[in-house]
Specification:
Helix content is 39%, strand content 26%. The protein has helices at 13-27, 38-46, 58-66, 99-108, 122-134, 137-141, 150-158, 169-172, 205-215, 221-226; strands spanning 3-9, 30-36, 53-57, 76-88, 112-115, 144-147, 164-168, 178-183, 191-197, 230-231. Helix 1 (13-27) links the parallel strand 1 and strand 2.
């Protein structure tokens, strides 16, 4: 029996947690699961931390593959998720139908939550840039409640600490009591594909590939969809 170390971003955390037990039952191996933001995980890898399977945004895995840090043929797109807008279930829905309407909603909101860009999350980094683009960064940041992880954004909404939150839909769905209004409107739309790869330094590449096969089974596609992720595999 082998133990494999998995380092994964939070956007696909529900799927990894859902299917890791099946991998363990079928193979007798153990999955040591580690989750964090894309930026945080990349920093850990750059400092020399090792893993047997990593799941990061597609661009990050592609960059690692180009420098020979990923086992040839192991790069596998898993799923795509979009940044969504959330309010507390039962609350009156604000107008977020257009970029301008969404901008005005953010200005009027008592509090806004999103992932802390300093933590390295893809959605939070994008949204911080979006606030600058819309010209309301100072105004919104004064009343922002930042989450280190996406589920903390959803929790801030449910707890009533903010009126509106935004992060990847796959992370919003993990917290009961959230109502998702939809994706960011119009040209503000943001999606990210998450990709797995086996690092060349993996001590258990065959076991890691076995987990990857479980994650990408055709029979599991519906579970990915229900979790707010568009499967990238057949």
């Amino acid at each position: 029996m082998a133990e494999i170390k998995v380092m994964s971003t939070g956007a696909v955390e529900p799927m990894v947690k859902m299917f890791a037990p099946a991998f363990e039952r079928e193979t007798g191996h153990k999955a040591n699961l580690n989750f964090g933001t894309a930026g945080g995980l990349k920093a850990r890898l750059e400092k020399g931390e090792t893993a047997d399977l990593i799941i990061l945004p597609a661009a990050a895995i592609e960059a690692m593959e180009k420098v020979g840090a990923i086992v040839a043929g192991s790069r596998t797109d898993l799923g795509r998720t979009v940044t969504g807008i959330a309010i507390k279930d039962g609350a009156s829905a604000p107008d977020v139908s257009t970029p301008e309407a969404f901008k005005q909603t953010l200005i009027k909101a008592r509090g806004v939550s999103f992932s802390d860009p300093a933590a390295g999350g893809s959605s939070g980094t994008y949204f911080a840039g979006l606030l600058n683009k819309l010209g309301i960064a100072d105004e919104v940041n004064k009343k922002a409640v930042l989450g280190k992880r996406g589920y903390e954004v959803a929790q801030a909404v449910v707890d009533g600490r903010v009126e509106i939150g935004t992060t990847f839909i796959s992370e919003l769905l993990t917290v009961p009591g959230v109502r998702i209004l939809g994706p960011l409107p119009g040209d503000l739309y943001f999606a990210n594909t998450y990709t797995a790869g086996i690092p060349t330094g993996s001590k258990q590449p065959e076991a890691a590939m076995a987990l990857l096969r479980v994650l990408t089974r055709s029979a599991n596609r519906d579970s990915w969809v229900k979790a707010g992720l568009e499967p990238a595999f057949a």
